[in-house]
Amino acid sequence: MHSSDCPRRHSVGRGRTRLCALLASALLACRNPISPGSEHLEAIELHLRDPAGARVAGTVDNARWTGAPLRVPSGDTLVLLAEFTDVFGAAFTLVGRREHTLRGEIEAPRMATWTTTDGRGRLVGLLAGTTRVRFHIWHGTHADFSSPWLEVVVTPRATFTSAVQ
């Protein structure tokens, strides 16, 4: 090896290192590469509210739920609004957003269903028993946010019994 080759070899090595660092930082900057102009929603918490605005359930550190389980009689519907909290502590919903939708994933779809309409959802009890649901902020082909599983208890539909015999 000639001493005149050393600077050239070191500069090639530094160039490769810089290129690798640049590629790594680009890949790590966003777990889900998306097209320019499209934004991710950075939620850290989720609170489910009833139509009157009362809190029904909420996540703690997006690791567990308070207010759980959700209870819905078979054949009935529980209407919920998903309210998220961002990294700055500000609340937001998905109402009126076009690029982001609320998805509910039911563990046992024969027991309950979830349908979403403009940031709100309807949990319908089908068959008495217990299942779980988790919620996602859906953005194109991936989730920007996923909640932990939340227990759902579908209770048997109450039957009317006349007091007069």
Give a description of the structure.
- The chain has 165 residues and is α+β, with helices and mostly antiparallel strands.
- Helices cover 15% and strands 44% of the residues.
- The protein has one helix at 5-29; strands at residues 43-49, 55-60, 64-66, 70-73, 77-86, 91-92, 100-106, 112-117, 120-125, 129-139, 142-146, 150-155.
- Strands 1, 2, 3, 5, 6, 8 and 9 form a seven-stranded antiparallel beta sheet that branches. Strands 4, 7, 10, 11 and 12 form a five-stranded mixed beta sheet that branches.
- The chain is globular, with a radius of gyration of 24 Å.
Structural class: alpha+beta
What value does the average pLDDT take? 81
Q: How many E strands?
A: 12
Give the biggest sheet.
Answer: 7 strands, antiparallel
SSE run: HEEEEEEEEEEEE
Percent of residues in helices = 10-25%
Outline, from the CA principal axes? Answer: globular
Helix count from the secondary structure assignment: 1
Uncertain runs:
3-12, 17-37
Distance between the termini: 107 Å
% residues in beta strands: 35-45%
> Radius of gyration from the CA trace?
24 Å
